[in-house]
UniProtKB/TrEMBL annotation:
SUPFAM superfamilies: CheY-like. Keywords: Activator, Cytoplasm, Phosphoprotein, Two-component regulatory system. The keyword Phosphoprotein applies. The keyword S-adenosyl-L-methionine does not apply. Required for high-level post-exponential phase expression of a series of secreted proteins. InterPro entries: CheY-like_superfamily, LytR-like, LytTR_DNA-bd_dom, Sig_transdc_resp-reg_receiver. It comes from the Bacteria. This is Response regulator BlpR. Residues 143-244 form the HTH LytTR-type domain. Residues 2-126 form the Response regulatory domain.
Length: 249
């Protein structure tokens, strides 16, 4: 689990962090990343993963800007559609207009509540995130990769391909919406999803998103115009498996 807190009041920062730390210890839940921010942009810059294992606890009013937390939540939702967003605020009156920002917040927690109730509310959203981070309504349609250094979760249909990164021990993921880079290896990724095809030692591709194959040039193309090389020894298998996919569509 990764936990991000956005709160500009130092007293409230300490209070929330202390209670969350207690809850994690009491529930036996580990947080690989647990950070507190007073500025929305710093929080957004720190987001390096995607998935329902990411919990964001956001104040709504930041640095005197009444709706800064709502704006940050909208940015988070664009970056990470599966993230769990919770508002921890005194501005519960903003609950109705949060729908305008399309952030799908899990809850609004009143930080003026006594510590006992406040801790109970925090415990519920942390438990929810922990219990659901390994689940998906459509497990077969979600790609999930987890290692000691990273966790990535996104719809399989959005994936074009994976490639080795110039940065040692990292992999690049190219999707319909973005390009990500995270710690891992192609062999580890191939082990967790047999639907990916190894067309070359440096590439894993999603056969469902191929637009065309150039057998003469040993290239496979995707809808975004990108091309990946295909090993001569892999071309026959690629054409066979891609053809089988086309027949089932």
């Amino acid at each position: 689990m990764n936990i991000f807190i956005l709160e500009d009041n130092l007293i409230q920062q300490t209070r929330i962090k202390t209670l969350v730390t207690e809850i994690l210890r009491e529930e036996g839940i580990s947080a690989r990343q647990f950070e507190v921010f007073s500025k929305a942009q710093n929080l957004l810059d720190a987001i390096a993963e995607k998935g329902n294992h990411q919990l964001f606890l956001l104040d709504i009013e930041i640095k005197g800007e009444e709706k800064k937390g709502l704006e940050a939540a909208a940015d988070i939702r664009r970056i990470d559609p599966a993230a769990v967003i919770v508002f921890v605020t005194t501005h519960s009156e903003f609950a109705p207009i949060s729908f305008k920002y399309k952030v799908s917040a899990l809850d609004f927690i009143d930080k003026t509540a006594p510590d006992e109730q406040f801790k109970t509310d925090l415990r519920e959203v942390i438990a929810y995130t922990a219990n659901n981070m390994h689940r998906s309504e459509e497990v077969d349609e979600v790609f999930t990769f987890e290692s000691a250094q990273a966790r990535v979760q996104l719809p399989f249909k959005d994936i074009y391909y994976f490639a080795t990164s110039p940065t040692p021990h990292k992999v690049m993921l190219i999707t319909k919406n973005e390009r990500l880079e995270f710690y891992g290896s192609l062999s580890e990724i191939a082990e967790v999803n047999s639907r990916l095809f190894s067309c070359h030692r440096s590439f894993l591709i999603n056969l469902d998103n191929i637009s065309r194959v150039d057998k003469a040039e040993l290239l496979v193309f995707f809808e975004n115009g990108d091309a990946c090389p295909v090993s001569r020894l892999k071309m026959k298998a690629l054409m066979r498996e891609w053809g089988a996919r086309q027949e089932t569509v």
